[in-house]
Amino acid sequence: MTRSVCIFARDEERKIHYAIGALEAAGLGADDSVHILVNGCEDDTALVARAVAAADSRISVHELPVGDKANAWNEYIHRIADLNNETHVFLDGDVTPSIDAVNALEQALFQSPESYAAAALPATGRSRRQWARMLLSNHYLSGNLYALSASALSAFRNRKIRLPFGAKGEDGLISYILLTDLKGGDDDSFTNRIAIAERATFEFESLKPHSEDAQIFLRRLARYSERYFQKQLLYKRLKAEGISAMPESVYEIYTPTAFASLRPRLDPVNFLIDLATLRRLRKLAGSASLGG
């Protein structure tokens, strides 16, 4: 039984070798394959990935010009993935999977025949316990590390389900699609579609209190802010109209009317970021409507 590992890598020249190096201990076998999707990088991630691939015939590198994880996911699901693989593991290039994580994800899928996916749990981070409880109680995936079954991948292909270009928080959207049994709509009670592999965990390097990491943290907050507003607009549409209403690009739903009713969150961490995000998105929506 062969597995495929898909690694998403954007500007990860410093960290990606840790993710790749941990795969053997995580359970990667001699007949398994690894696909590194280098997307929109401005550093030497591709160079590092190609050097590793040159020494290991199981590894392939795919260079995508656009830095968009949803687009990279679509490329793997609809073009790159081999349907002969029984399990497809998805891993971010800046995280390290735990020992036996690939085997644990596969076992979780095997032990839950109705499941389409298996979720791993965080082992680092200040909020890891709260994060893990949320994943466990809601049967959500974390985009850092999870697995899809061959049947899930086939279903995405056959039904031509793609994530919208530009979508932030692709893991939440994939979770929603699976929990609605690939239909969309209001009924997200199909928790049997996502198994939890509690023995599969992942680690990542926490941000430190210096200027470079502070900038990374602010960019992350801005990304999370846009994800927050995207979720309100996109999920409202999918719950009302079903999976067939999935836009090709998330920017299709950025309209002045859609943003008119949205408001920033009132907590002190997010308020100013949300305010700036809304101004930017409303301006973008206004420009798009004028251009159209």
Concise synopsis of the structure shown:
The chain is of the alpha/beta class and 292 residues long. It is built from eleven helices and eight strands.
Description:
With 292 residues, the protein is an alpha/beta fold. Helix content is 45%, strand content 17%. It has helices at 16-21, 23-26, 45-54, 69-80, 101-111, 128-138, 150-158, 170-179, 211-241, 256-260, 271-291; strands spanning 3-9, 33-39, 59-64, 87-92, 95-97, 117-122, 145-149, 194-204. The protein starts with a strand and ends with a helix.
CATH structural architecture of the largest domain: Alpha-Beta Complex
Average pLDDT taken over every residue: 94
Sheet with the most strands, sense and barrel status: 8 strands, mixed
Counting helices, strands and paired strands, the structural category is: alpha/beta
Radius of gyration computed on alpha carbons: 19 Å
State the shape: globular
Question: The CATH topology of the largest domain, please?
Answer: Spore Coat Polysaccharide Biosynthesis Protein SpsA, Chain A
Strand percent estimate: 15-25%
CATH class of the largest domain: Alpha Beta
Output the helix-strand order: EHHEHEHEEHEHEHHEHHH
Structure summary, number of beta strands = 8
How many structurally independent domains? 2
Strand order of the largest sheet: 3-2-1-4-7-6-8-5
Low-confidence segments, given as residue ranges, are none
Number of helices: 11
